[in-house]
Task: structure prediction
Amino acid sequence: MADMMHEGIVEPVEVQGIKNTFYMPPEESSMLEPDPDLCDEVLLLALLDNLIGIRKLISEVFGFDYAWEIYKIPAKMIFGCYVMPILHGDRFIGRLDPKLDRVNKKMTINALYLEGGKIDGETPLDELASAHGRFGTYHGASRIDVGMTAPLSLKSMLGGALAAQSLKC
Result:
């Protein structure tokens, strides 16, 4: 790295609160500036998305502990085999365990967990419903059923937000 830094190929980048030093090409340094147009949509991340590939880093930077639980025995599972992280802007707000019934064109939310287990003023319910709607539509679902949620009150609130967006639930 020292040679690459000396040649100007990379430069060091320090992340507040992280002890490791990272490196990036100098021509990409503008990516470190705050972006006022940062996507404010709720995004459901794929299980093996590159963003969550380095779990220790995600835990250190975002305070979000994620594990793909498909290889765990059921007694050791916490969230579900195929749980997906939910990202809103620059923070992880929850986890989704979906199941698709292609024959009946139905998406079932087996479980939806909000980080911290509570709804607060920053919980984007309409955006969360939109993300679930986009996800269901992408997979050909014409109906979304909401199963278990944490907190429990999220179930009726999400169902209402889905219905307000003309999604069958």
Observations:
- The longest strand covers residues 91-101.
- The two ends are 54 Å apart (CA to CA).
- The chain has four helices and seven strands.
- The CA atoms of residues 66 and 125 lie 22 Å apart.
